[in-house]
Design brief:
This protein is an alpha+beta fold. The protein has 4 domains: 7-65 and 73-129, Immunoglobulins (Immunoglobulin-like); 134-228, Immunoglobulin-like, CATH 2.60.40; 253-360, no CATH class; 395-675, no CATH class. 42% of the residues lie in helices and 16% in strands. It has 22 helices and 19 strands. The strands form 4 sheets. Strands 2, 13, 15, 18 and 19 form a 5-stranded mixed sheet that branches. Strands 3, 4, 6, 7 and 8 form a 5-stranded antiparallel sheet that branches. Strands 12-11-14-17-16 form a 5-stranded antiparallel sheet, with no helix packed on it.
């Protein structure tokens, strides 16, 4: 049967249908006397199919008996079409009887051709329902009005409209628009319309819409439409020149980048610190979102707020904090009275689509599991939480570890347990925490926590996701099974191209080229995707929770008093002075932790925008230009912090540095010791 689906989709679908037919034949071989009827429910006069529709099988009666039993007729068998519009019915036929199938969708009924059914046989019958549904495409004129058109043009906005009968309009609950190949769908407030922007050059595109009824019936409608290539602009005569900064059209993924920034701020240390301080105060009942396990733990630990179980309450509060703030959507932050924020939220909803899901995740599901139902139970089983991935990136923990945050906490915990540091002199010999203040309760619980991630465990995952290594005694003789050795080169090449783009973009006599950026973004995106497996989801979450706990303990006034941190040095967060002080005491690197914190914060935002962006789908430079301009401050801050830490200028046009940061840090530490 001819369909309007891409070849790879049709192959996967045929494979699934063949599997279902084989299973059915096996079932019929063990149930003798059965008859099987299968087929597809479609819109009359087209190949558009109807999913989730009720199918009823009736026996065809003669005219005399039919008159008396018409009002009380009962179906012989019932079934339901799947998301592809296909159905299967198995029943025991009566010899000599004729059967037919009926299906009702949007108050319209259709029936199949009569079937003279016999036992141990199978029959194919399609059911056609007379629905007057279709898609018309209109083009926008310069004044904003729309007109009918036969073809569109690349880069010019189109309006797709669902035409329907007035009598069934109230039965329509929602319309989910889609288009492929590379066409951006911008859903409008009117569910029967959608804006389309062809981005991928000329050619034929397929526009689709899933029309959903209040009863759950889904009609899948597709239409072909031709897109012409953009017209060539002939330059001649006078050429007017205006020295203005070039602009690019707005893209929907800008709303996703805004969400990354919003959530980076939502799970920042200062927000976390305020949340935990409330948790540890009397009377604050932090939310557990209906989770009975968390609710039970909360009430169990509430009475032990200042006892030896205080650390358990701190861990629980940290997990709840991350659960509340690490997702993609920003619904909880919406507030009335801010038109700009409301517009961003609306664009984020348009970007995520319905049901809300990142386009990158949709593409992965479509390519890896094309036979899955678009919103069925099988997809839910496969996704396992990918509908809304956590915006947490492990690269932040890597730079904080290079900045000696974890080593500082480990040194304090060892001294807390009365373990002498290596060497003749223990720099923490006079570090004593009295029981008058509750900090020792938290450190007692942390020292007994056997579930904390080890340095080697984190180091293996740094290599798996980014190819970044840690150098030290704890990570000696490591042999990773998988290593992203090309990440650093690709990432630093992208940052260098960003510096070139920024210079061109500042020059009002030049139109900055965004295509090198787009290619570099795709390269980094693919490398990151290769490392998004195994511990990718859980280890970054666990590491972030542990990092926040360490930062909170180091930020306590008791810790600062005991370590005698320098009060006149400005720091962005309260835990940072203690880390720099520990570096001085232990003779570690003299590079301030402020630069490592900048690499961690800004690097996480940049990598998140690349990992979860739908970069493979983009062929126009607008997305890359908008990305560079949106994250310009983050990229510039990252470039400066990297130079301050390693001494390497990533904007150097002569070469792209791909040496591991740990190598540069070891070299600078050796020079520091020689200078002494």
């Amino acid at each position: 049967m001819k369909t309007d689906l891409p070849e790879q989709w049709q192959f996967a679908r045929d494979k699934q249908i063949k599997y279902e037919e084989d299973v059915m034949e096996e079932c019929m071989s063990t149930e003798m006397g059965k008859c099987r009827i299968f087929g597809r429910v479609r819109v009359e006069g087209s190949e558009n199919f109807i999913g989730n529709a009720d199918i009823r099988l009736f026996r065809q009666e003669d005219s005399a008996s039919k008159r008396g039993r018409e009002a009380t007729r009962e179906p012989i068998a019932v079934g339901r079409s799947n998301s592809e519009g296909r159905y299967d019915l198995v029943f025991t036929p009566e010899e000599g009887s004729t059967y037919y199938l009926e299906c009702t969708a949007f108050s319209k009924s259709g029936s199949s051709e009569p079937i003279q059914a016999h036992a141990n046989e199978k029959y194919h019958r399609d059911i056609a329902v007379p629905l007057n549904l279709g898609i018309t495409v209109k083009s926008y004129k310069d004044d904003g009005t729309v007109v009918e058109c036969q073809e569109g043009k690349e880069g010019r906005r189109l309006l797709a409209v669902l035409y329907r009968e007035k009598r069934i309009e109230e039965e329509i609950k929602d319309c989910r628009w889609s288009a492929f190949p590379e066409v951006e769908v911008v859903r409008r407030k009117e569910i029967f319309e959608a804006d389309l922007v062809p981005r991928g050059g000329g050619g034929e595109i397929t526009i689709g819409v899933a029309v959903i009824s209040h009863g759950g019936v889904v009609v899948h409608i597709q239409s072909r439409f031709f897109i012409a290539q953009a017209e060539l602009q002939m330059i001649g005569g006078k050429l007017n020149v205006q020295l203005e900064r070039t602009a690019t059209p707005s893209t929907l993924d800008q709303a996703f980048w805004h969400a990354i920034r919003k959530h980076a701020d939502a799970i920042s240390f200062e927000r976390y610190r305020k949340f935990i301080d409330k948790v540890l105060c009397d009377g604050y009942d932090f939310p557990t979102m209906g989770n009975t396990t968390l609710e039970g733990e909360k009430h169990h630990l509430r009475s032990a707020r200042h006892g030896v179980q205080a650390y358990e309450l701190l861990k629980l509060g940290t997990q709840v904090f991350l659960l509340l703030h690490c997702g993609v959507r920003c619904e909880s932050d919406r507030g009335p009275g801010c038109a700009t924020s409301e517009m961003v939220f609306q664009r984020l909803d348009d970007y995520l689509g319905c049901p809300p899901q990142l386009p990158y995740i949709k593409r992965v599901i479509r390519d890896a599991f094309p036979w899955l139902q678009s919103d069925g139970w099988r997809q839910d089983c496969v996704l396992m939480g990918l509908h809304e991935p956590c915006l947490i990136e492990l690269i932040k923990e890597y730079f904080l570890e290079e900045g000696m945050l974890m080593q500082t906490m480990n040194a304090i915990l060892m001294r807390f347990q009365n373990v002498h540091a290596a060497g003749d002199r223990d720099p923490l010999a006079n570090f004593e925490i009295d029981p008058l203040r509750p900090l020792n309760n938290f450190m007692w619980g942390m020292s007994r926590d056997l579930n904390l991630l080890s340095v080697r465990r984190r180091a293996y995952e740094y290599m798996h996701q980014y190819g970044l290594a840690l150098y030290g005694k704890a990570t000696a003789s490591m042999h990773p099974a998988d290593n992203r050795s090309k990440f650093l080169e690709a990432f630093h090449n992208l940052l260098y191209l960003c510096s070139v783009f920024f210079k061109e973009d500042n020059d009002t006599t030049v139109i900055a080229d965004g295509y090198p950026l787009l290619s570099a973004l795709k390269e980094v995106h693919l490398v990151l995707a290769q490392g998004a497996h195994n511990q990718f989801g859980d280890l970054p979450w666990t590491a972030r929770a542990e990092t926040l706990v360490m930062q909170w303990i180091l930020a306590q006034p008791e810790t600062r008093d005991f370590l005698q941190s320098r009060a006149m040095v400005p720091y962005a967060e309260a835990w940072m002075p203690q880390v720099d002080t520990m570096k001085i005491l232990q003779g570690w690197s003299d590079v301030t932790v402020t630069n490592f914190r900048d690499l961690a914060e800004f690097g996480e935002r940049i990598v998140l925008s690349i990992r979860f962006g739908n970069w493979i789908a983009y062929v126009a430079e607008d997305h890359a230009k908008n990305w560079a301009r949106f994250f310009r401050a983050d990229i510039q801050a990252y470039l400066h912090a990297y130079r301050a830490i390693t001494g390497v200028d990533l904007t150097n046009p002569d070469t792209v540095d791909s040496t591991l940061p740990a190598v540069h840090l070891q070299r600078r530490l050796s020079l520091q010791h020689v200078a002494r």
